[in-house]
From TrEMBL:
GO terms for cellular component: nucleus. It comes from Octopus vulgaris. This is Zinc finger 239-like. Keywords: DNA-binding, Metal-binding, Nucleus, Repeat, Transcription, Transcription regulation, Zinc, Zinc-finger. The keyword RNA-binding does not apply. The lineage of its organism: Eukaryota, Metazoa, Spiralia, Lophotrochozoa, Mollusca.
Length: 451
């Protein structure tokens, strides 16, 4: 075998010096295919076979005279050199965008045509690129052949494995030629470049929203389709993004990798640590371009902007009600399903929202984190502090539309309204007498126990 490779290498070295293989081909005009005697791959031209054999020998005879990088094929060198020259000879006749390789133009055109020629034979889903189909198929097989020898993490495709290794090496080989910032991944550089150009070439055909990256559009479309292809193998919960599944799994493992160097608090997600640190710094980097309000978290700005736009893109398929945010829709659906997935491990009580469970737990701990800065009184819930402060300010924002009387809390207004309607919703199940307020029923019930 070594002798064969040696002979091939000699042949490769001599033949790659000649660009025109016409003499060789003239001698074998009658031959229709040329087969590699090592791997069996067939070629229509002998010159293509000669170039292919360099893969087996590892020879890279074509060298870039700018950065000294070497290639086994001359075509690859020509394509590479366009990185240095900036040449983009392939133009899209729809939007005018230019590309350094014809294959990139072919893929780009499918954005305009919507063509998805690659089909999954397992689930029937179609894709615009063969590589995307290959990666998708691994979701059915769960095959992860690429393993990192540093942290043992496994990957389903080589591209993601290569990108992952940059975490350990710290390598950032992609540089922005406008501001000089460096990135470890090409698509991150591409995404960054759109900051300078403002380009958003990927459009949602359902709602018309535009995106700077195709993968972001793909993820966005799952809002409309409800698709959640990433499943937790512990609790069966599903997610629309792989990153969301990764973060979710830390709930089960309890892993908190990110530590605050100011107060030592730990977090399972890096972005939560970054947001937390703004408590210490007071930084509010997200600004509303409509009213100028600032926020410490991007999500808070997004929520705030719905006040201006009135947008409610999330619809309940049970009752048709619309919501501004996906998590609000998810919580709302618990009304229809009766689901209460959040359980108190002290008393076993269940809740439909995690925030309700958090508030409930303070009953057991006695925690009162909300303090009045006027009188020092403490409360376990924020809304109770807000209501309490109205004692000091005299504010009474809840008004009775019948008599005009004002109240500091909504509950007081509700009780007051019953005096107009003579509503008595609290009924004694012993004697049948009804009362307008719960405490009056309690006082009445005690008269039966005393008898």
């Amino acid at each position: 075998m070594e002798k064969e490779l040696s002979e091939i290498k000699v042949k490769c070295e001599t033949e790659t010096k000649r660009i025109d293989f016409s003499d060789d081909e003239k001698n074998e005009k009658g031959k229709t295919s040329y087969d590699c005697d090592i791997c069996g791959t067939s070629f229509s031209r002998n010159s293509s076979l000669a170039n292919h054999k360099c893969i087996h020998t590892g020879e890279k005879p074509y060298q870039c005279d700018i950065c000294d990088k070497s290639f086994s094929l001359k075509g690859n060198l020509i394509t590479h050199q366009r990185i240095h020259t900036g040449e983009r000879p392939y133009h899209c006749d729809v939007c005018g965008k230019s590309f350094s390789q014809s294959v990139h133009l072919t893929k780009h055109i499918r954005i305009h045509t919507g063509e998805k020629p690659y089909f999954c034979d397992v689930c029937g889903k179609s894709f615009s690129e063969n590589g995307t189909l290959t990666r998708h198929k691994r979701t059915h097989t769960v095959k992860k052949p690429y393993q990192c020898d540093i942290c043992d993490k496994s990957f389903s495709d080589g591209m993601r494995f290569t990108k992952h290794k940059h975490i350990h090496t710290g390598e950032k080989q992609y540089h922005c030629d406008i501001c000089g910032k460096s990135f470890s991944r090409r698509y991150t550089l591409m995404s960054h470049n759109h900051i300078h150009t403002g380009e958003r070439p990927y459009h949602c055909d359902i709602c018309g929203k535009s995106f700077s990256l195709g993968r972001v559009l793909t993820t966005h479309k799952r809002i409309h389709t409800g698709e959640k292809p990433y499943h937790c193998d512990i609790c069966d919960k599903s997610f629309s993004e792989a990153g969301h599944l990764t973060r979710h799994k830390r709930i089960h493992t309890g892993l908190k990798l990110y530590h605050c160097d100011i107060c030592d608090k730990s977090f399972s997600q890096k972005d939560n640590l970054i947001t937390h640190k703004r408590i210490h710094t007071g930084e509010k980097p997200y600004h509303c371009d409509i009213c100028g309000n600032s926020f410490s978290h991007r999500y808070s700005l997004t929520i705030h902007k719905h006040l201006h736009t009135g947008e409610k893109p999330y619809h309940c398929d049970a009752c048709g009600k619309s919501f501004s945010y996906g998590h609000t829709l998810a919580t709302h659906k618990h009304i229809h399903t009766g689901e209460k997935p959040y359980h108190c491990n002290t008393c076993g009580k269940s809740f439909s929202e995690s925030s309700y469970l958090t508030k409930h737990k303070r009953i057991h701990t006695g925690e009162k984190r909300y303090h009045c800065d006027i009188c020092g009184k403490s409360f376990s819930q924020k809304h109770n502090l807000v209501t309490h402060k109205r004692i000091h300010t005299g504010e009474k924002p809840y008004h009775c539309e019948i008599c005009g009387k004002s109240f500091s809390g909504r509950i007081y207004l509700t009780k007051h309204k019953r005096t107009h309607t003579r509503g008595k919703p609290y009924r004694c199940d012993i004697c049948g007498e009804s009362f307008s307020q719960k405490h009056l029923l309690s006082e009445h019930a005690s008269t039966h126990t005393e008898q």
